[in-house]
Design goal:
3-stranded mixed sheet; DNA replication protein; alpha+beta; Rossmann fold; 4 helices; IstB_ATP-bd; P-loop_NTPase; ATP binding
Length: 101
């Protein structure tokens, strides 16, 4: 299975979902750097992830590019940590015993 960096772009924002599931390859790191550099200070970028931010360096895979990318991304960031049960679990049809713990 190949690693993919998937982003949805609207006129004023980019939304990246399931960030950090796999380490980025060199081309993905470079693409992400270019995206963050172009957008920094002018438009919105939303990152949705279950990966704690202190592990994002490892997910990017190159400390030098990670510094540059995360500096642009996190400089004016608003973090919204979520807690509680998964909505898939809450709204799903599986019984409590069928869900992964």
């Amino acid at each position: 299975m190949s690693s993919k960096l998937v982003a949805i772009q609207t006129p004023d924002s980019v939304i990246t979902h399931d960030w950090g599931l796999e380490t980025l390859n060199a081309a993905q790191r470079n693409d992400l750097m270019e995206i963050m550099d172009d957008r920094h200070g002018s438009t919105s970028t939303v990152i949705i992830s279950q990966l704690p931010t202190d592990q994002w360096y490892a997910a990017i895979g190159d400390n030098t590019l990670a510094d540059a990318i995360l500096d642009r991304l996190m400089h004016n960031a608003h973090r919204l940590p979520l807690e509680g049960e998964s909505m898939r679990k809450k709204l799903g049809e599986l019984t409590e015993g069928e869900h992964l713990k």
